[in-house]
Each structure stands twice: as C-alpha cells, then as structure tokens.
Design brief:
This protein has about 180 residues and is mainly alpha-helical. It contains five helices and two strands.
Length: about 180
C-alpha cells in the first residue's frame, strides 16, 4: 500500500514538474511594448477629451479677452475644474515599466503646467495683477516644452522597441509593428 502511494505521489510530482517547465516566461520586451501601446493607444486617448475641452475653452477665453469678468468666469468655472478632473484621471493611470512611468511623468508635467497656467490667469484677474499673466504665459511655454520632451522620449522608446506611432489630430497612438 505504501509503495502504491509513493508511486502515485512521485507520478504527481513528475507531472507538476513537467507542467512547470513547460510554462513560458513573459518576454520583457513584449511586456514593454504592450504597456506602451496600452498607455499611448488606449489610456491617454481614453481621458483626452477633458484635456482637449479644457485647453480649447482656455484658448477661446484668452483669445476673446475683451471682458475680464467673462474670461474669469470661463476659466474658473470650466477650464480649471475640467483640467483638474483630467489630471486626477491621468494620475490614476498605472504603469509598471520604468520607461512608461517616465513617459507618463513627462506628459503629467505638461498637463500640470497647463493647469497651473489656468489657475494663474484666475489669480491675475481676481488680484488684478498683470505679472501673473506673464507667469501664466511662461507656464504655457513650459507645458509645450514638456509635451515636446514627452514626444521625443516616446519616439526614442518606440524606435528602440519597433513600435509604430500614428499621429492623429491631437494625439498619438502606438501599435506593435510586429
């Protein structure tokens, strides 16, 4: 009886060992590609509407800056809350690969500077301080620089990992070129 039990136990252990040896380990390069494609092709486009809406409303308010109270109302009631919501969603996106984390941080810096510029315009109008408008313009410029840094880093990572970037009107998507 003990001999049969021992043989059955050995047979089970052999089956488990063979099954464990047959498992494929996840390819780190493929995992990186998948995460980049998800982040750039799904995650960012999935939340982009709020950023686009906030930036468009801000640009419209600033270009028709005839009445400061109207600019204040639009920026304070529409742009700032919409951009804040966008930033919360952006911050909630998770990444595991350091390269994707770096991309996310560059993109987040751009969005944060746009948000800060919007708040600075509110402060400029409420406090009647034109120096704040200069600071807001500086933040907008810094946001553009951070976005350009993101795009450069994205291109570098995609080129190194054979990922194709397709640029649309306002977004880029990434797909595995293989």
């Amino acid at each position: 009886m003990k001999k049969k039990l021992y043989i059955a136990l050995m047979l089970c252990m052999t089956v488990l060992l063979v099954a464990a040896c047959g498992k494929k380990k996840e390819d780190p390069a493929k995992a990186l590609k998948d995460e980049i494609v998800k982040f750039v092709g799904t995650d960012l486009p999935g939340i982009a509407a709020e950023r686009d809406q906030a930036v468009a409303a801000f640009n419209e308010a600033m270009s028709s800056a005839s009445d400061p109270s109207e600019v204040l109302k639009k920026v304070k009631e529409t742009c700032v809350p919409t951009m804040e919501s966008y930033l919360n969603k952006l911050n909630a996106l998770t990444t595991t690969a350091p390269e994707v984390g770096e991309l996310k941080e560059l993109y987040r810096q751009s969005a944060q500077k746009q948000y800060d510029a919007m708040k600075m315009v509110v402060s400029a109008i409420e406090g009647e301080n034109p120096d704040y408008l200069t600071q807001a313009n500086t933040l907008v410029t810094e946001a553009k620089t951070a976005l350009a840094d993101y795009e450069t880093k994205l291109k570098e990572i995609c080129d190194a990992n054979n990922i194709k970037i397709t640029t649309g009107a306002a977004t880029s998507t990434a797909t595995d070129a293989n």
